[in-house]
What we know:
The complex is a heterodimer of chains A (383) and B (459). By secondary structure, chain A is of the alpha/beta class.
Amino acid sequence: xxxxxxxxxxxxxxxxxxxxxxxxxxxxxxxxxxxxxxxxxxxxxxxxxxxxxxxxxxxxxxxxxxxxxxxxxxxxxxxxxxxxxxxxxxxxxxxxxxxxxxxxxxxxxxxxxxxxxxxxxxxxxxxxxxxxxxxxxxxxxxxxxxxxxxxxxxxxxxxxxxxxxxxxxxxxxxxxxxxxxxxxxxxxxxxxxxxxxxxxxxxxxxxxxxxxxxxxxxxxxxxxxxxxxxxxxxxxxxxxxxxxxxxxxxxxxxxxxxxxxxxxxxxxxxxxxxxxxxxxxxxxxxxxxxxxxxxxxxxxxxxxxxxxxxxxxxxxxxxxxxxxxxxxxxxxxxxxxxxxxxxxxxxxxxxxxxxxxxxxxxxxxxxxxxxxxxxxxxxxxxx
Amino acid sequence: xxxxxxxxxxxxxxxxxxxxxxxxxxxxxxxxxxxxxxxxxxxxxxxxxxxxxxxxxxxxxxxxxxxxxxxxxxxxxxxxxxxxxxxxxxxxxxxxxxxxxxxxxxxxxxxxxxxxxxxxxxxxxxxxxxxxxxxxxxxxxxxxxxxxxxxxxxxxxxxxxxxxxxxxxxxxxxxxxxxxxxxxxxxxxxxxxxxxxxxxxxxxxxxxxxxxxxxxxxxxxxxxxxxxxxxxxxxxxxxxxxxxxxxxxxxxxxxxxxxxxxxxxxxxxxxxxxxxxxxxxxxxxxxxxxxxxxxxxxxxxxxxxxxxxxxxxxxxxxxxxxxxxxxxxxxxxxxxxxxxxxxxxxxxxxxxxxxxxxxxxxxxxxxxxxxxxxxxxxxxxxxxxxxxxxxxxxxxxxxxxxxxxxxxxxxxxxxxxxxxxxxxxxxxxxxxxxxxxxxxxxxxxxxxxxxxxxxxxxx
Lengths: 383, 459
């Protein structure tokens, strides 16, 4: 009996593994690669070969191409929920939304702050900074109590303390926290919604010297009603309603006259403000201006000649459309996708202000501004 | 690469088995060695070069000691030199001496190869066995290379004497039955790691993330129990996966763990926990030293010291050393009081409590932090339980109960005592379905990250 059982085990498991291997290979061959990924230098490739990080990448790529991965992750969510907490792949499944559940004690390294300070010292215009909390910071009361609910607020405060000279620091946390009963954050993503961005815009634009535009004057288009964010893709939790991707259009005189995307190799292409093709892709959030590219330059019919440079992450993408009524030109740089120093993309002396707008998670990790602002940090001391 | 990853289970393992199967009999070991080098290369070329150099060092070490011994020369000199090199490398890589160097030479990090501590024991044991004349140096480079680098044993052992390893290699029997048995053992280990250890680690992390002064006694106990169970399932899980893989290739490795938790005496626990490394320390350090003296108190001191060395070998810090010393002392006291008879449940209770307390000491980075945690377990800081305790117990009670049951030998004992052939047949018949379900569940749990990494300890 034991012998037969072992033989059946061998046959069934081997067959299952073989079928999955073949399906995964087919999926890997037919699947599309990530076209926007940063390409490393030859040196970094050699280093990754030597220290084994390429092995980790292969392991991750294999998992990424694993056949039926979405269904597997859904089974994962059900299994995890059944045997322990509602935390799946670092995401807490609350009744109404998914929230990043990071229990690690994070600290502000100060390197990002150091880069911004160095930039401010050299730059002639004014520098403003908005550090945006993720949904975990605003909806912290939904998380289990052992996860420090004050962490994101503390991180933002600490980061602002490091920039006590020269940089105008704008509070987004309290505004978003106050409005947390509204649809200010996606249910399936860590990021804010367009409405959340608008709420913070009202504060930011006053600090930039303008009067905010009234909410009533916007026409709101639900560009997509099936957006499933990063937190959803990590859990495949079916009971979380998909989110809306909104486009806010102001019924005023100022119109967008042109948008130009610039790549790292210097090529420039004209594009619409909103990339509606993205709604048919895996990354629907790329609907917003410049997402997935190093730089986008947006020109408007506003004749005041004022120009703004925005350096930010995905939070900035849905925020920028609100600024367009006030400026004749807005340039957005996404350091996540840049590989060159800032001067290779644009001349910052043309802009009267620079606005840094990042999620606090981006500012706490490794210094994402290191390469972009390297021209300004040389010789400066680190905090 | 580690065993608990999708790429290992769904790509490396099946392709390796295929390559090994189609290779002519006399080249099977060579094929396995090449596969082992590919496996190691996933940790980086630096680790691969190190591994090859390490195997070459010990291969030549064995030959040099053998030659000195045959020539009736001073074989103790090469033995000392090669042992110092082996142990020195382990200390250098496991301690944090090289951490600062990684930035200087431009690497993202300097890895301590997974399994180095176990490989060091194997290599040192081999050299000492040649010196003491228990065996002759191996001339077959491929076979010796496998002794050091064989991928089914490189992560979590077992630590074998060369004689025993050679016997296992000679008795290779590859068949569908062996493959089934190997896959069953592999899935058992995978489930231990992915289903049990990883989720227990979440519970341990949740408790560990709370400030000690805010911990209630029951929460602290829950965290400590989670740590001990997580440690057991991680180590035994990897050991089972390694042994299962070896079985698929036709090699039968001995057990590394025999349900040590819930033993009725500390002595029983010691004989069932991580059997081969513990035996190695007894065989190569404790016994030779004890033979040097006839004083019982001195022999006892040696036993306690060896326990301290084992504890240090695991953690490479003061906590590990202290934990080992206290364990050795408790073992001594237990032997001294062996005349007192206690009921089995009482024995299980006292052993479990001591193991959990020692687990807390073992887990800490400093003695003072561990003592503060033990203080919280006594209820010195706050009340017995709070809302966090209720939340954690509500969320994890099913997992904890299943984990405690699975870590005991209750099922095995029940089957033996029932004497029911029918029950055994039903369980044996259901095995293929259970194994497949375990594979599917573990695949799902690893589907997002692609792997379930080594946690708590890097031996």
